[in-house]
Specification:
Blueprint: H1 3-13, H2 15-21, E1 26-38, E2 43-54, E3 68-81, E4 86-98, E5 113-129, E6 132-146, E7 153-165, E8 170-181, E9 191-203, E10 208-219, E11 228-240
Parallel strand pairs: 1-11
Antiparallel strand pairs: 1-2, 2-3, 3-4, 4-5, 5-6, 6-7, 7-8, 8-9, 9-10, 10-11
């Protein structure tokens, strides 16, 4: 694929945020910092820290996505590389602190809620042509919800996407990730939310990777029957120990 084709491909991906931004009233910022320790070529552990912000749509100047907290979390992972195409992952513990999504002034008065989460997941990838790879991540998680009056949730999530390697340092991905509440008591809330996103990755070194992207979410809150839409701007930094020594 020549340089002109690459530019057209990348430019077309940035049309996605412009299209979805017309339908969303919430603007959020997601940040993540991740540290990975490899024990062997096949086994590694990861500690993940997240902080998310949201805008306050009840204010006249609601365009600032850093106006209110949305979520804080810490999560531990263990990863097993089965082969070049498949990775099995397990998170034995994750702790989340949630703030309500602000849709009116009453939401700002609600107490924070808490969650302990346990997850297993599998990642599969397959190169299809040249630098283009299809990938899929299937996971199931148990959400132990605290002080919010809701039952615990068993949630299935599946992420399907395409990744294009521009060169050794840069790649671009597009994806769709669907979330379903398997133990929902009503059919409407079997659907939890759906994410459509674009992500650019830059490998600064063997140890450092930076992801920057955009995710549009359509979600159906447990106590509502009308979907909410929000735009999320994402920045994630990954550091892997010992990589420069190999």
């Amino acid at each position: 694929m020549n340089k002109k084709a690459i530019l057209i491909f990348v430019f077309s991906l940035f049309i996605v945020p412009l299209y979805y931004a017309q339908n969303a009233s919430h603007n959020n910022v997601w940040t993540r910092l991740s540290f990975t320790i490899p024990f062997t070529n096949k086994i590694k552990t990861e500690a993940e820290f997240q902080k998310r912000f949201q805008n306050d749509i009840t204010l006249s100047n609601s365009g600032n996505p850093f106006q209110e907290n949305l979520m804080n979390s810490v999560r531990l992972w263990g990863h097993l590389k089965v082969n070049s195409k498949f990775i099995f992952s397990i998170s034995p513990f994750a702790y989340f602190q949630h703030s309500s999504i602000i849709t009116n002034t009453n939401e700002k008065l609600k107490n924070k809620t808490y969650e302990v989460r346990y997850t297993i997941a599998g990642d599969y990838k397959q190169k299809i042509i040249n630098n283009l790879t299809v990938f899929n991540r299937l996971g199931i998680e148990y959400r132990d919800l605290k002080n919010n009056g809701q039952d615990n949730i068993i949630r299935l999530r599946n992420k399907l996407g395409l990744k294009y390697d521009i060169n050794k340092k840069w790649n671009v991905s597009i994806f769709d990730e669907y979330f379903a509440n398997l133990n929902s008591t009503d059919q409407e809330h079997l659907f939890d939310h759906n994410r459509v996103g674009i992500l650019g990755s830059f490998f600064a070194s063997k140890s450092i990777k930076l992801d920057v992207g955009f995710i549009h979410i359509s979600r159906l809150p447990k106590n509502k029957f009308e979907q909410l839409h929000d735009d999320n701007f994402v920045i994630m930094l990954y550091y892997t120990f010992n990589q420069n020594k190999k």
